Amino acid sequence: MGLSRNVSLWTGLRYKGQGPYLTFILHRVGGLGMGIFVTIHILASFLGGEGGVLVNSIYENWMFQIFIFFCALFHAINGLRITLLDLFPKLIEHEHEAIWIEWAVFLPTFGIAVLAIVTTALGG
Amino acid sequence: MEITIKIFRYNPEKDKRGHHEVYKVEGNENDRVLDILENIKGNHDGALSFRRSCAHGVCGSCGMRINGRNHLACKTLVRDIGAEITVEPLLGLKIVKDLIVDMDPFFENYKEMMPYFINDSPLPENGRERLQSPEDRARFDDTTKCILCACCTTSCPSYWANGNYYGPAAIVAAHRFIFDSRDEAASERLQILAETDGTARCHTAYNCTEACPREIQITKAIGEVKLAQVTGTLK
Do B10 and A3 touch (CB under 8 A)? Predict the structure, then answer.
């Protein structure tokens, strides 16, 4: 007798982890986003015709491009940090500093890309 | 000062699901959350159930989620978390009653790591203890501090998703013996942790290290075990 051990997604997301937990969640969001992108891309090629054009219009939309760029860039940079720390576990003591460096690399790169995407989309 | 504390309640004899109850009690900023729970149990609601033993951060009994994060109730002061407190049971383990969770799966995983000294070689010629240099002892010093409170394992999203994962505390116990120069069963433990439910399930969310009341560098210890599995060396 007793309540189940199951932890719902909502309960898990409400756990007050810190910076590393946020990167853990964003890494999953990034992976999921790229999965959605690839699926839509394949679907567009597979459908062709009007259906294909409609699906194309989703992933060619500039807002979707910003989202997918966020997913791909964050997933890549965060993955690189995880790989480096896995190869050199002694550095894990400096996990928080590693995450600050990660954001310092990610934010300007993402900002420049967003600027380029928005300028292109709105400026013709 | 008045302290408002919201506590998760579940009585298996009456309730189908858990709920929260709010208590307002007098206290001061130097009170620990455990003091407040004792006050409520003693003066307001004797049915409130929670584990406690030493009350000094050594036994690991009073692990619980306090304001959304795992802590020991006996080491968490009101002045550090404020007068609005929410107390809930640890995640990922079956809730037996109120704040008490079923620790059996946690200890089963711990036992899988063979958390005891294994050395079948003959004793030194003088028949006395097996000696170890201070440097060799320092290699696993951090992981000797574990008090098995389960704060780490129950903060791990991989463990929430899959209860078969051995979890950070079990890997910490394995690390303590794997890197002990006097022990001879490191390869067996590394083999156990190379299984599907071993170290591969650690995705470095780092919640374990943040939650550890003994400040053990758990993610680092898991990383060292992973590296030992890949390289086959125990440096």
Answer: yes
Helix (H) or strand (E) holding A9: helix A9-14
Domains detected in chain A:
18-123 (1.20.1300.10)
Every domain of chain B with CATH number 3.10.20.30 lies at 2-101
Q: Which of B90, B160, B172, B235 to mutate to test the interface with A (most CBs of A within 10 A)?
A: B160
Order of strands across the sheet that contains B2-9: B19-26, B2-9, B84-88, B63-66, B69-72
Determine the topology of domain B2-101 in CATH: Ubiquitin-like (UB roll) (3.10.20)
* Global ipTM: 0.88
Summarised one tens digit per residue, pLDDT across range B58-91 is 999 999 999 999 999 999 999 999 999 999 999 9
**Series of mean pLDDT values for 10-residue runs along chain B (235 residues):** 96 94 96 97 96 96 97 97 96 96 97 95 87 94 97 97 96 97 95 94 95 96 95 83
Specify whether the CB–CB gap between A82 and B223 falls below 8 A.
no
Look at the domain B104-231 and name its fold. Answer: Fumarate Reductase Iron-sulfur Protein; Chain B, domain 2 (1.10.1060)
- In this complex, the residue of A16, A21, A93 whose CB is nearest that of residue B220 is A93
pLDDT digits (tens, 9 = 90+) for B17-33: 999 999 999 999 999 99
